[in-house]
Design goal:
- The complex is a heterodimer.
- Chain A contains 17 helices and 20 strands.
- By secondary structure, chain A is of the alpha/beta class.
- Chain A has three domains: 231 residues, 3-Layer(aba) Sandwich (Rossmann fold); 69 residues, no CATH class; 205 residues, Rossmann fold (3-Layer(aba) Sandwich).
- In chain A, strands 6-7-8-3-9-10 form a six-stranded mixed sheet. Chain A has a six-stranded mixed sheet with strand order 16-17-18-13-19-20, sandwiched between helices. In chain A, strands 2-1-4-5 form a four-stranded antiparallel sheet, with no helix packed on it.
- In chain A, a hairpin with a 5-residue loop joins strand 1 and strand 2.
- In chain A, helix 8 packs parallel to helix 17 and helix 12 packs parallel to helix 13.
- The longest helix of chain A is centred in the middle third of the chain and has 18 residues.
- Chain A is globular, with a radius of gyration of 25 Å.
- Chain A starts with a strand and ends with a helix.
- Chain B starts with 8 loop residues before the first helix and ends with a helix.
- Chain B has a two-stranded antiparallel ribbon with strand order 1-2.
- The model of chain B has no long low-confidence stretch (mean pLDDT 89).
- Chain B is built from nine helices and four strands.
- Chain B is mainly alpha-helical.
- The radius of gyration of chain B is 26 Å and the shape is extended.
- In chain B, a hairpin with a 5-residue loop joins strand 3 and strand 4.
- Chain B has two domains: 191 residues, no CATH class; 76 residues, no CATH class.
- Chains A and B meet through helix 2, helix 3, helix 4 and strand 16 of A and helix 5, helix 6 and helix 7 of B.
């Protein structure tokens, strides 16, 4: 008996278009099923249709069986058996302390007191989070919060855990830690896992099955390696696959599909292309005129805390895109805030256009000169529709390198992550800044949206803007940056053109660079690889 | 936590309730002085980091009452001086002083209370009355830091957008309204996620239980029993008038022999309870360590 038996499921929101069409899918006990597809393809809706408490309102046809029984007829106690973890680490946490968050579900189900204590002890030990028992949930990092959310669901002993983009708000290190935990649960306990993700690099190698959904219909389904072969001809989906899959495709897609870096390297060695075309020499992009000059900048948040920025030196040239990469807590966001004059350093100097930042009075700095887009772009929006938002801010839509007019009547919060990012960018551009500071602009974006954003930023650069981006996203930086910088413990440790940067880095680099290291010089993106491998043609 | 802090929160709550309520409702200056002494002693022996500035408020409060009361209340037979044809009396001054001491005692009791009672303990105790109320409290405690941080973020965002001015008071006020409005929209949007997360973990608004974070041991039962006994020892004679005290027209204390002695000693012992417990616990550790 399958765990979930989904038969001809269709769904439409009231007065909306059909979001799921005739989905048929079987999930067996112990499966690790990865669901992928572009934003708006109906992944989240499908997941919610598997959890009775979260059923969306709308018109449904077809049926969903859970352990052979109709899911609509499940008794309320059964909610324990289907766990659900959402995207937002911040808002799915309910209580103020870690222990209470984990006890929350058990309290709702009125578990016996002894059982509660026992399960608490088990889960805390399994996740080795016992030291966080008394911690305030607000003091945890995003990755820790997601881990607590997972633990708080697991403690109720579910048969299956459904996760809706659980790592899209996390940095790469926390994200891979979280996914490894899922893998461990799947391997050690045989827990069934159904997960959707945008960032497929890490999750695809872990999954046992892959299901691709496009426009509400299943376009590929099966054992991971098999399903990938089915979608290779679909460029949009292929572009979102791990680097090894793209290399596999470029090399002709013969044999078994490699899913991770070692498999990718082995495949590349065995199928080395006949002739390799050298990549053209990278030219220093952007101007040479200094736009921002930072000298020996030191900053700390309180008297006795360590320095967040430590003797930092950085020069940003006019008309370039600079990506600053680095781990959590390396001071990236603080650097941006210091340049935007939102925090005050205790030593050192920031010059913008040759003038000390302290000499800019009042709003002078933000008038037609510098603007910052924060990590949480929702904090930009004030109005009920995008149109009102644009009118109030004085956005001239003809001035934008992209078009959002189709979404004018939408509430800004109802836009997808990518659209929100572009809309916020438009609002920020209304003050006609010459320097743009962006904090983690690709957080929660799918591949298509990242490509659009990258194009928009390149177009703005063509118009003469200087752009500084702080990001975790190595793949995005490799595509978008003119120069990439690495930040560590409050200083910039190296700054180079992206190709040099990602070729010379060993650990902190793109997956294509990891696969091609020592085999093909300088290929850091799938496009680079295509160029090199296509040498003979 | 050791000592008084290790006692079951429900018993601790009962203790603070008894000691403050009976300290205030007797309206007796001797009881108030005992209460203040007991509260100060406990505050001093609690083994947690304390802020010396706590003392400022009780001192100011006492001065304020002692000076303020005779200016408004002119009862009492002993006139000390006359201001603007209004007599300032000794009894009225003493009454003010008494109110000041009574309130100061309460300040110290509450200060000690907040030093040892964490939010967990409040939620645990509230759970005996209503699990739903306890849940609301823990959610509120989570919301406050979350939205303070969010408001700061929004403020930074709106400032660095470069679209708005904040040079005059009016534009600054508008800026504040803008931040508040974004915050509200954000809160409402995000609560949907929280409510989904609650529903997904079986919350239905129905009956729920509480996680047994604290044990109720024999020691806690003894502490609770002693608290109740000493409170009754004070309250029963008081109901009969054994603690009556009059300020006006002249100071007059009623003494009822055994029942008054019982009431005063009962209250004094009640006030000493936690300090004695704290002290004995520390002695025990001291001897344990010297034996090791």
């Amino acid at each position: 008996m399958a765990l979930f038996d989904i038969k001809n499921l269709s769904f439409a929101y009231p007065a909306g278009k059909r979001i799921l069409r005739d989905v048929t899918l079987t999930v067996e006990q112990g499966d690790f099923l990865v669901l992928c597809g572009p934003t708006g393809s109906g992944k989240t809706t499908l997941l919610k249709l598997l959890k009775p408490e979260l059923f969306p309102l709308g018109e449904k046809s077809g049926e969903v069986l859970f352990e052979g029984a109709d899911i609509n007829a499940l008794p309320p106690e059964a909610s324990c058996r289907i766990g659900f973890v959402q995207q937002s680490p911040e808002h799915q946490i309910v209580t103020d302390k870690v222990w209470h968050e984990i006890a929350f579900g058990m309290e709702n189900m009125c578990f016996d007191k002894m059982l509660m204590k026992r399960r608490m002890a088990e889960i805390m030990s399994y996740f080795s989070i016992d030291s966080q028992f008394d911690t305030n949930t607000s003091d945890l990092s995003g990755g820790q919060k997601q881990m607590i959310s997972l633990a708080s669901v697991l403690v109720m002993d579910p048969k299956v855990i459904i996760l809706d983009e659980p790592t899209s708000q996390l940095d790469p290190v926390s994200a891979s830690g979280f996914l490894q935990t899922l893998k461990k649960l799947n391997d050690e306990l045989g827990l069934t896992i159904i997960i959707t993700e945008h960032r497929l690099e890490n999750v695809i190698p872990l999954g046992s099955k892959l299901c691709v959904i496009e426009d509400g219909s299943v376009t590929a389904l099966g054992e991971t390696k098999q399903a990938i072969k089915e979608i290779l001809s679909n460029e949009k989906i292929r572009r979102s696959m791990p680097g090894s899959v793209q290399i596999f495709h470029t090399l002709g897609a013969n044999g078994e599909c490699p899913l991770n870096v070692p498999q990718g390297r082995a495949y590349l060695k065995n199928n080395m292309p006949q002739s390799i075309r050298e990549l053209p020499e990278e030219e220093q992009q952007g101007g040479s005129e200094t736009e921002i000059k930072i000298k020996n900048l030191c900053l700390r948040y309180s008297k006795n805390s360590p320095d967040v920025l430590n003797q930092l030196n950085l020069t940003v040239y006019k008309n370039e895109i600079l990506c600053v990469l680095g781990a959590n807590g390396s001071g990236k966001t603080t650097l941006l805030n210091a340049v935007a004059n939102l925090v005050t350093p205790y030593a050192g100097k920031i010059e913008i256009k040759g003038k000390n930042i302290k000499k800019y009075r009042g709003q002078e700095l933000y008038n037609n000169l510098l603007a910052m887009l924060p990590q949480d772009v929702e904090t930009v929006f004030l109005r009920n529709t995008l149109q009102e938002e644009f009118e109030k801010a004085g956005v001239d839509p003809t001035d934008l390198p992209y078009d959002l007019s189709y979404a004018y009547s939408t509430h800004p919060y109802d836009l997808s992550g990518g659209e929100q990012q572009l809309a916020a960018l438009a609002v920020v551009l209304a003050s006609k800044p010459e320097i743009l500071l962006l904090d983690e602009p690709t957080k929660g974006l799918d591949n298509g949206a990242k490509a659009t954003l990258c194009k928009a930023l390149r177009a703005l650069k063509e118009k003469g803007k200087t752009i500084v981006i702080v990001t975790h996203d190595v793949e995005f930086a490799a595509r978008c940056a003119d120069r990439a910088a690495m930040m560590f413990r409050g200083e910039i440790t190296c700054i180079e053109t992206p190709r040099r940067f990602f070729t010379d880095n060993i650990f902190y680099t793109t997956s294509v660079a990891k696969i091609t290291a020592g085999l093909i010089e300088g290929a850091v993106t799938p496009e680079d690889f295509e160029y090199c491998a296509g040498g003979g043609k | 936590m050791t000592g008084f802090g290790s006692i079951n929160p429900a018993a601790v709550f009962a203790y603070f309730l008894c000691v403050t309520v009976s300290g205030i409702f007797t309206l007796n200056p001797i009881i108030s002085v005992i209460s203040l002494a007991g509260a100060l002693l406990l505050w001093a022996v609690l083994p947690v980091a304390k802020n010396k500035r706590t003392h400022i408020y009780p001192v100011l409060l006492t001065l304020f009452c002692a000076v303020g009361n005779p200016l408004f209340s002119h009862n009492g037979e002993t006139v000390l001086l006359v201001i603007n044809n209004n007599p300032i009396t000794l009894q009225s001054t003493l009454y003010g002083l008494f109110i000041g001491i009574m309130l100061s005692a309460a300040v110290y009791w509450f200060s000690s209370f907040s030093l040892i009672v964490s939010s967990d303990k409040i939620i645990y105790t509230l759970g005996f009355i209503s699990q739903k109320a306890a849940l609301v409290l823990t959610m509120a405690l989570r919301f406050v830091p979350l939205y303070i941080r969010k408001a700061r973020q929004i403020n930074g965002t709106q400032k660095a957008l470069g679209l708005y001015k904040d040079e005059t008071i009016i534009t600054r006020f508008r800026g504040g309204v803008r931040v508040f409005s974004v915050l509200m929209t954000n809160m409402i949007e995000k609560t949907i996620i929280t409510s989904d997360s609650m529903a997904a973990r079986g919350y239905s608004g129905g009956k729920r239980s509480g996680y047994p974070l604290f044990k109720f041991t024999f020691k806690d039962a003894v502490f609770l029993a002693v608290t109740v006994f000493l409170t009754l020892l004070t309250a029963v004679p008081q109901a009969k008038g054994a603690l009556d005290f009059n300020f006006y027209p002249h100071i007059d204390i009623t003494f009822y022999g055994v029942s008054s002695v019982a009431a005063y000693t009962g209250y004094a012992l009640l006030c000493l309870c936690p300090s004695v417990y704290e002290g004995s616990d520390r002695l025990k550790w001291h001897y344990l360590i010297s034996r090791i």
